[in-house]
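User: Let's play a game. I give you a shape written as tokens, and you guess the letters that built it. Ready? Here's round one.
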């Protein structure tokens, strides 16, 4: 079962809720990562804590070696967090060189690159690029859905090279790991994990479905950061997880009073075809850049719709990125002054990471509310996601099939028709799809209405909100 792709019942009517109710629904869905009756203990699992403690001891040997290296790899949100870890781990005393790797390189931080997540060869090449190491080595891969071939390639490389510790973080059960054959490896990601000889440490607490189905930038991203913190900072894992759970509740409690007044202002800005700007400092700045970068793949937004103001300070956290070009604020744009978290922290929490998580939780909720109001979410599903890899292609097929009330084969045909391709390799299909806007809503409209592709594209062009265009026909088919 692929839990990360399921819809969460706590948010099943998210698109119909008032703004304060939306914050409450997001909180109920998110707090499942600290344990729930529906999905089990998640991050609060005692067995997980013992596993983390055991792996942390192995990692500590590498972390204390000044000649050693710790590699952290990911794709999409996980890749962005891997780049952050390159800054964060030295701050908490890691002496080994820390290297963060994102599928597609830093160019993919702000713009999705087709196919890189699906390339085991690219993952291996990125890892091999750093050459021999005279000290100990550890590798940590993050793929929330246990699906990225990029990470599978790096796992295989690290095992073959005899790394001292090889870890994979994800949030599906093992039977939900991708079993898609990877030609370059002669097996699948699931096959690698099931090969006991490789000794891959799999950390996969089940967090429950994301608040917005498939949007692992939310719970998956937060849990990844928390797990990295627990793996490298020592101390009681149980106490730290408990402190994070209380902190999470405090942050969401503050949101109920802050966000509902901001969302309408941001919505008006987008409706007037202007830019929503985040202005922040310190760790809140990194969280702002992270959230803005995730809006195009998540909501199908234009790159200019959500931006970050004055990111000069970001090179402290992400020196690998080019911050030379800074667009100018124009009349009619709206600036969200992102607040820093100033309330006292539990002694077990690290201030930089706590600040990042607090701002991440706030902005994830804020952007989700804004784009739901802008018509990019139906119930609790993304209806204008951009297809940039095989996982998202399958998610798009499932979405069109479910909401369009058609077979998976018909849904796939509609998507292929929209991107004007047929009978091609899946990777070629992704390469075409990532370059086109509104693939999913167009295919969905075709299935709901029976109209031609051209007619559906015109309807979407004439209707400002994707939600409104789709809802006309969804009401008829209920």
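Assistant: Ready! My guess for every position:
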């Amino acid at each position: 079962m692929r839990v990360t792709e399921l819809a969460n019942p706590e948010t099943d009517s998210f698109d119909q809720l008032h703004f304060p109710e939306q914050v409450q629904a997001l909180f109920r869905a998110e707090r499942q990562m600290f344990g729930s009756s529906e999905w089990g203990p998640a991050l609060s699992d005692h067995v997980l804590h013992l596993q983390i403690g055991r792996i942390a001891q192995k990692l500590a040997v590498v972390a204390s070696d000044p000649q050693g290296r710790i590699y952290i790899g990911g794709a999409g949100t996980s890749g962005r967090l891997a780049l952050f870890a390159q800054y964060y781990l030295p701050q908490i005393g890691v002496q080994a060189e820390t290297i963060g790797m994102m599928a597609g390189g830093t160019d993919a931080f702000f713009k999705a690159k087709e196919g890189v997540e699906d390339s085991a060869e690219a993952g291996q090449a990125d890892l091999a690029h750093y050459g021999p190491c005279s000290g100990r080595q550890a590798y940590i891969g993050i793929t929330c859905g246990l699906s990225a071939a990029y990470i599978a390639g790096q796992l295989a490389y690290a095992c073959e090279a005899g790394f001292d510790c090889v870890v994979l973080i994800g949030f599906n059960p093992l039977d939900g790991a991708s079993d898609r054959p990877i030609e370059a490896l002669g097996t699948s990601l699931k096959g690698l994990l099931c090969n006991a000889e490789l000794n891959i440490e799999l950390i996969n607490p089940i967090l429950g479905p994301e608040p917005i189905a498939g949007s692992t930038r939310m719970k998956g991203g937060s849990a990844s950061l928390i797990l990295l913190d627990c793996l490298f900072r020592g101390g009681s894992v149980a106490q730290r997880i408990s402190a994070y759970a209380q902190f999470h509740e405090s942050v969401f409690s503050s949101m109920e009073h802050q966000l509902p007044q901001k969302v309408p202002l941001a919505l008006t800005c987008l409706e007037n075809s202007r830019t929503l700007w985040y202005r922040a400092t310190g760790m809140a700045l990194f969280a702002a850049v992270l959230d803005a970068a995730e809006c195009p793949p998540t909501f199908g937004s234009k790159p200019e719709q959500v931006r970050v103001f004055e990111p000069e300070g970001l090179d402290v956290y992400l020196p690998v990125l080019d911050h030379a070009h800074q667009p100018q604020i124009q009349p009619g744009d709206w600036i969200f002054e992102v607040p820093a978290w100033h309330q006292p922290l539990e002694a077990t929490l690290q201030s930089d990471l706590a600040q990042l998580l607090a701002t991440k939780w706030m902005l994830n909720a804020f952007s989700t509310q804004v784009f739901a109001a802008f018509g990019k979410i139906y119930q609790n599903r993304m209806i204008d996601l951009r297809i940039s890899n095989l996982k998202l292609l399958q998610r798009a097929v499932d979405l069109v099939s479910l909401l369009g009330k058609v077979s998976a084969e018909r849904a796939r045909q509609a998507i292929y028709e929209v991107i004007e391709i047929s009978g091609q390799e899946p990777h070629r299909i992704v390469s075409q799809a990532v370059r086109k806007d509104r693939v999913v809503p167009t295919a969905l409209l075709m299935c709901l209405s029976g109209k031609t592709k051209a007619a559906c594209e015109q309807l979407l062009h004439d209707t400002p909100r994707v939600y409104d265009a789709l809802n006309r026909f969804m009401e008829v088919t209920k």
